[in-house]
Automatic annotation (TrEMBL):
Residues 116-136 are annotated as: Disordered. Residues 3-213 form the NAD-dependent epimerase/dehydratase domain. PANTHER family: NAD(P)-BINDING DOMAIN-CONTAINING PROTEIN-RELATED, PROTEIN YEEZ. Pfam families: Epimerase. It comes from Actinoplanes subglobosus. It comes from the Bacteria. SUPFAM superfamilies: NAD(P)-binding Rossmann-fold domains (SSF51735). This is SDR family oxidoreductase.
């Protein structure tokens, strides 16, 4: 297949491009810069210049593709409303261009607020709908297009997709520990995240693209539940720092914006995903990645 990928040079996107190329697919990646274009071309992919706000470029990339993988996101934590607006506009543009074609449309989604008091499952619908919702209600919007001939597939990524080179939430937690001299967790440390290694995540995106029917929710989850205390202990062990709790009311002061997320339960099961797509994660665990130095550079620049 010829696959159009947004976010093609980002953390998950770059590994997904590698996975798709290795499986024999052709890739057209959205590239914002000269460096991004050169990176894609060096891998044997093609590049389309544009960004998430360039809706005409999104349409052009989709019109010439057999499938679309949408992984780009502004992730503007200072202006979440702008991130939500851009995400909804991008999903609507891509899905409109795919309407009536039955071509696969894999898009990034998340695991927040899907269940209360238990790990979320693939049967849990997204509670977010409408342009003012988190991520612009993009998962619900994309699934509306399933009835219009779009093979919409949600890739619900774990809050940490870890590995060497990751600059996401775990890198920020490591940087905070270096800065403050303590590896901290929130409250009693029982809030939990799911986790997955980036190579396993990329492989599941490819499997979903190739096999999943419309309306599928892929849970990109290798470890169902890693508590915030376990994460702090792994960081503390690697950095040789004390591990201590932070009161919930002090979490934002200590961690910045990440304090709200670190105290939030985002545990999830991937049992249905594994059984349906014969996906068996083989990458290191989060604790193993931390111990091996995958985040050695976090907080040092």
């Amino acid at each position: 297949m010829r696959v159009f990928v947004t976010g093609a040079t980002g953390w998950i996107g770059s590994h997904t491009v590698d996975e798709l190329l290795a499986a024999g697919h052709q890739v057209l990646g959205l590239a914002r810069t000269d460096a991004a274009e050169a990176s894609l071309q060096a891998k044997g992919a093609q590049a389309l210049r544009g960004d998430l706000d360039d809706l005409a470029a999104l349409r052009r990339g989709t019109e010439g593709a057999d499938a679309v993988v949408h992984l780009a996101n502004k992730h503007d934590w200072a202006d979440p409303a702008e991130s939500n607006r851009a995400e909804r506009a991008a999903v609507e543009t891509l899905a409109d261009a795919l309407t009536g074609s039955d071509r696969p449309f894999v898009f990034a989604s998340g695991l927040a607020a899907l269940a209360q008091g238990r790990p979320s499952t693939e049967s849990d619908p997204s509670p977010f709908s409408g342009p003012d919702a988190p991520r612009g209600g993009a998962e619900s919007l994309a699934f509306e297009y399933a009835a219009r001939g779009v093979r919409s597939i949600a890739a619900r990524f774990s809050p940490t997709v870890h590995g060497t080179g990751d600059h996401g939430f775990i890198a920020l937690l490591v940087a905070t520990a270096r800065r403050t001299g303590v590896a901290a967790y929130v409250g009693d440390g029982t809030s939990a995240w799911s986790a997955v290694h980036v190579h396993d995540a990329a492989r599941l995106v490819r499997l979903g693209l190739e096999q999943a029917p419309a309306g599928t929710r892929l849970h990109v989850v290798a470890e169902e539940s890693v508590t915030s205390r376990e994460i702090a202990e792994a960081i503390g062990g690697y950095l040789n720092l004390p591990v201590k709790p932070v009161a919930p009311e002090d979490a934002v002061d200590h961690f910045g914006f990440l304090g709200r997320f670190f105290a939030t339960d985002m545990a999830a099961s991937s049992a249905v995903t594994r059984a349906t797509f014969d996906w068996n994660p083989t990458g290191p665990t989060l604790a193993e990645d931390l111990a091996a130095g995958a985040y050695a550079g976090a907080g040092l620049s």
